[in-house]
Batch of 2 targets.
Target 1
Amino acid sequence: MSETFVIDPGPRAGVPVAGTNALFPVHRIYCVGRNYAAHAREMGKDPDREPPFFFMKPADAVVTGGADVPYPPGTKDLHHEIELVVALARGGRDIDPAQALDHVFGYAVGVDLTRRDLQQQAKDLARPWDFGKGFDNSAPLTALTPAAELGHPASGAIWLEVNGQRRQSGDLRDMIWSVPESIAFLSRYYELCPGDLIFTGTPAGVGALSRGDKVRGAIEGLAELVFDIL
Ligand code: MN
């Protein structure tokens, strides 16, 4: 006899897979902080002295299909952070960096939306970042391109425009911690699972978004991310 939930558990968050009708089921969303030296410097940190650190967003924070993103409550300083997103097909603990890419299903372009004022308040008061980072609709991203088609991008342009004006511009090769290093590091602290997403950090040029803004971002070789802030 199968057990039933006492209330409707609701739908599972999913991300479309490019060129198919299939959805990739989202388990957790891990995000790397300050993974490009120039962005670490713009946030007032020395990029050479810190091991990687992570924070999380809820799985249902994903926004797909180019849907509008509502301006979130509780902030006057919503920021964009364009990032390469890694999707895991296989999980594990203590993953060897040399084998880490074998766990990857594919890649997407995402924006780690941030309530910068709430994040700064949390930093000042030595409190958790959840209110600044882990809010509803804080993870817009494109469809996933399977690694079987794309390979594993370790370099290539990454950029973001707001209303046609270039704000962020970088190259994946400037990541401080590579994708395999991030997977290996995380797997020493969590059991990674199929369905996990990893946002891999943003290059310099983060800035504020307002209602009505048109956001467009891309990474060489991947689909373009386009959404409006409502
Ligand atoms: Mn970020």
Note: Residues 31, 81, 83, 112, 199, 201-202 surround manganese (II) ion (CB under 6 Å).
Target 2
Amino acid sequence: MTIRAVVKGVGHYLPEEVVPNSWFADKLETSDEWIISRTGIERRHFAANGETTSDLATNAAERALAASGLTANDIDALIVATSTPDLTFPSAATMVQARLGMERGFAFDIQAVCAGFVFAMSQANALIVSGQAKRALVIGAETFSRILDFDDRGTCVLFGDGAGALVLEAAEADGTAADRGILTVDLHSDGRHKDILYVDGGVSTQSTGQLRMQGKEVFRHAVEKLAKTAHTSLDKLGLSGDDIDWIVPHQANLRIIKSTAQKMGVGMDRVVVTVQDHGNTSAASIPLALSVGVERGQIKRGDLLVTEAIGGGLAWGSVIIRW
Ligand code: UT7
């Protein structure tokens, strides 16, 4: 008998303000046409003044708990994946814990930038499989609008704010690829690539900093590494692209999403795409896409999902889940 971390429910929250590409075209030398053709992004949401990452995370968490039929005090482990926490400390996760009225268990943040949710799911899975937690609430939440340089057209048009949350619960299973739950995880990082995607400030340098990216270089790594990690995860299970019902990729760029799907032999009719509406929400992008995919009626119980992401670090990886 094997213990699996099985999905109980999912939810998301997007700030009210929708920012269309035309907002940037009014301020910078860019155009709706350039942004759509190079990225697939049509609009993104920005948090209101005073609205923080833990606000977005709490809203998404409440929806995921409601979808699961659980309350906050049923949760043992609460993990927030974010690179844009409200404060240097305490963690966004403990702030969400308090806001949810959760008076037990433990909460902590994970920082692996755009790959954060994949790393957080891996950690939640390890806690559940090892028996340290029976139920985990895994949240990806970001306010990247706070670290954008709005004079840099190469980066500011790409990112948005939002949050998504997933409730996982321990369940006995057969230990085969037919089980529901997280089936396998593949994680990587390579710190030698720091300079192609980073924020040029932080606590220790006494500034907040802004996002800096060599887009073409990151693009090159993404196209190479995402399909590779997805294949590694599939190989571990003896599965192939034909077995996948949905790829739920990190939503950074439609061209990266298409190229990865093609390398995996999966048609775009089996890929959940939300980048047009959300832009790149970093650690929030996969749980947002999972929640929207369920809402649209795309993702159904029993479907085999591949999630994959890459971001600053570089850090990247994939998780295979049977929904
Ligand atoms: O989630 C973390 C991971 N991040 C990513 O996955 C992002 C990966 N990178 C990308 O998505 C793409 O590289 C970008 C969308 C950032 C850029 O697309 P690209 O096709 O690689 O364009 P480029 O950077 O090579 O720029 C092409 C041209 C340049 O002009 P010149 O030098 O050819 O005259 C840029 O200055 O496009 C120009 N450009 C723009 N033009 C209009 C760059 N940004 C813009 C813009 N509007 N917003």
Note: The radius of gyration is 18 Å.
